Amino acid sequence: MHFYLFCIIAGIVCFLLTGGLDLIKGYINLFNNGSTDLGLGFRYWELKYYLSLLRDNHWIYGLGILTSLNANSFSILFGPGMVQMYLDDLGFVELFVQFGILSFFLYGYLIYKLVTLIRRTKNKKYICECSLFIGLLTNILVTAASLNIFGSQRIYSLVLIFALIFFYDYQLTKER
């Protein structure tokens, strides 16, 4: 075990000493196109714009569901000027801008139910189900920065996730 840990640490040190940070920085810069900056810089600009809309206690209740079908929400949704911004690019922030504090409870309930099921299925009989719930939880947490599971594109998968959660919750409750 100690040798394995030593090898991992030695590998990381060698990677960093041989220019690994430059490789990482180059990889990140692949997402930034110098002339139009449609990558991380643009996302940061979007983030600043949408969070600026939440001043004056709008962060408590959010701005509501923004749609391009309404002229007022269209101008808020796509930002100022000729540049078209997309709230969908910002993951959890999309939900926070639209619903305010309620968004923490929405994500919190989903995460709470998954963690509860993971704890309840930690035995050999439910090893596959436990693995599934760990994978779902990991996917939701890792992608929350860029993908909102409550967004319109992924709402169908949320229905399936809740169906799995409540099905196994019922099955485990019935077995007791």
Automatic annotation (TrEMBL):
Keywords: Membrane, Transmembrane, Transmembrane helix
Spans through the membrane: 95-115, 127-149, 155-172
UniProt entry tagged with the keyword Transmembrane helix: yes
Protein name: Uncharacterized protein
Protein's organism: Streptococcus salivarius
